[in-house]
């Protein structure tokens, strides 16, 4: 089976916001996150998108938490899942604390939020051009592939500008984050529109938050993209039914991919598809 028939499942296990009140199975500590990521890898996930929480459960960019979590994941038998660190895990973090974990731990991938916006209705999600240029430099120097997160169309044009200017390298990998309050809604029409804007030869993945989860999951697979699932984006399995855990969401995505006559990509296949530096690092 060629790489064209492989679909990469990214699992976003924690995020910065959901609490045990939203879903008791959300992993918060490094040990909980590592256990959860291992179960998701066994269920078919190739990439783990990771956020950290402090001891009170709040989003943090604490490099020690990333380090401990990565260590615990690599202790699991044969677990070669690709680690994708957030760079936006705490709205109060500084430009420096948002990238120090990339310099220290050199994960294979990290999120790159390619523009600013209102975050919900009471906060700002700021990604200043100076920060984006510095972050791209850090990623280039440390072999970290940017996962360019797109919350609205303008962010795609920013990404294309940085590609033209040589700040970002091609081929680019996009993650369409649909349904965040303040961003583009999670509809199939919006996904089709956004996907039509990205440069030829790019790779892409998509997620829909909350009730947008399934429409975007099915549409992304049908359109030949990759997918992201997980409690960061959606704590439910079905209407009024909480997901049992992240692995349950991954297993469903894997089942749908197989029904579509494709196969979930292994981490090494995902490395080839995305042009990662190769070899398991952090
Ligand atoms: Zn995230």
Describe this structure in words.
It is a single chain. The chain has 282 residues and is an alpha/beta fold. The protein has one domain (3-274): Aldolase class I (TIM Barrel), CATH 3.20.20. Helices cover 35% and strands 21% of the residues. The longest helix is centred in the N-terminal third of the chain and has 14 residues, at 30-43. The protein is globular. It starts with 5 loop residues before the first strand and ends in an 8-residue tail after the last helix. It binds zinc ion (ZN).
Number of helical regions: 9
The backbone outline, from C-alpha atoms, is globular
Please estimate the helix content.
25-40%
Supply Rg.
17 Å
CATH topology: TIM Barrel
Topology order in helix (H) and strand (E) letters: EEHEEEHEHEEEHEHEHEHEEEHEH
What's the main sheet like? 8 strands, parallel, barrel
Which range does the strand content fall in?
Answer: 15-25%
In the CATH scheme, the class would be Alpha Beta
Number of strands: 16
User: Which strand order do you get reading across the main beta sheet?
Assistant: 2-3-6-7-10-11-12-13
Overall mean pLDDT: 96
Distance between the termini: 29 Å
Bound molecules: zinc ion
If classified by CATH, what would the architecture be?
Answer: Alpha-Beta Barrel
Question: Which stretches are low in confidence, meaning pLDDT under 50 for 5 or more residues running?
Answer: none
Short description:
The protein is α/β, with parallel strands linked by helices and 282 residues long. Helices cover 35% and strands 21% of the residues. β10 (145-150), α5 (153-165) and β11 form a beta-alpha-beta unit.
């Amino acid at each position: 089976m060629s790489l064209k028939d492989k679909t990469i499942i990214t699992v976003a296990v924690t995020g910065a916001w959901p609490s045990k009140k939203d879903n008791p199975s959300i992993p918060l500590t490094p040990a909980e996150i590592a256990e959860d990521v291992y179960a998701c890898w066994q269920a078919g996930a190739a990439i783990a998108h990771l956020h950290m929480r402090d001891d009170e459960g709040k989003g943090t960019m604490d490099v020690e938490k990333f380090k401990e979590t990565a260590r615990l994941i690599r202790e699991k038998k044969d677990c070669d899942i690709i680690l994708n660190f957030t760079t936006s895990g705490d709205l109060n973090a500084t430009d420096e604390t948002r990238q120090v974990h990339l310099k220290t731990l050199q994960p294979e991938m990290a999120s790159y939020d390619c523009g600013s916006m209102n975050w919900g209705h009471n906060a700002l999600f700021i990604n200043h051009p100076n920060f984006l240029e510095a972050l791209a430099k850090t990623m280039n120097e440390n072999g970290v592939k940017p996962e360019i997160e797109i919350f609205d169309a303008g962010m795609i044009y920013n990404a294309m500008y940085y590609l033209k200017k040589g700040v970002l390298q091609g081929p680019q990998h996009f993650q369409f984050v649909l349904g965040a309050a303040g961003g583009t809604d999670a509809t199939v029409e919006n996904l089709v529109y956004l996907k039509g804007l990205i440069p030829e030869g790019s790779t892409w993945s998509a997620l829909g938050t909350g009730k947008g989860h399934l429409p975007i999951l099915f549409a992304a697979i049908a359109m030949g993209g990759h997918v992201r699932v997980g409690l960061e984006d959606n704590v439910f399995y079905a209407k009024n039914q909480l997901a049992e855990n992240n692995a349950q969401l991954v297993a469903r995505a894997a089942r749908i991919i197989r029904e579509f006559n494709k196969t979930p990509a292994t981490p090494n296949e995902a490395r080839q598809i995305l042009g990662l530096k190769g070899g398991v690092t952090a």
